[in-house]
Specification:
The protein is mostly beta strands. It contains 1 helix and 6 strands; from the N terminus they run E-E-E-E-H-E-E. The radius of gyration is 17 Å and the shape is extended.
């Protein structure tokens, strides 16, 4: 949804490379300007040996109209939404 995850690496002469931070890179599909009409994406998956399929819902933090998590929460459907971005760090998914 938000693009490929990137790790920024610094290289100094006579020193080992080290990570300086992370960010989202190319192939973003959800941004402040794009696909704001999509409130969430549901992923239906079937685990071998399971009796029923599982549904996970990923909320679009850039949606113009947010889907209320309570709508699916009462059905105990797992939901995820990224926290706010902090410069140099990847946002963590909140359940």
């Amino acid at each position: 949804m938000y693009g490929l995850e990137q790790i920024h690496i610094a290289v100094r002469p006579f020193d080992s490379p080290f990570a300086t931070g992370t960010s989202y890179g190319p192939k973003r599909k959800m941004t402040e300007e794009h696909n704001t009409s999509i409130s969430a994406i549901g992923v239906l998956s079937i685990t071998p040996g399971a009796d029923t399929p599982a549904l996970n819902v990923y909320h679009n933090k850039y949606a113009a109209i947010q889907l209320d998590p309570k709508l699916m929460g009462k059905h105990k459907i797992p939901q995820f939404k990224l926290g706010d971005e902090i410069s140099g760090k990847m946002p963590s998914g909140k359940r």
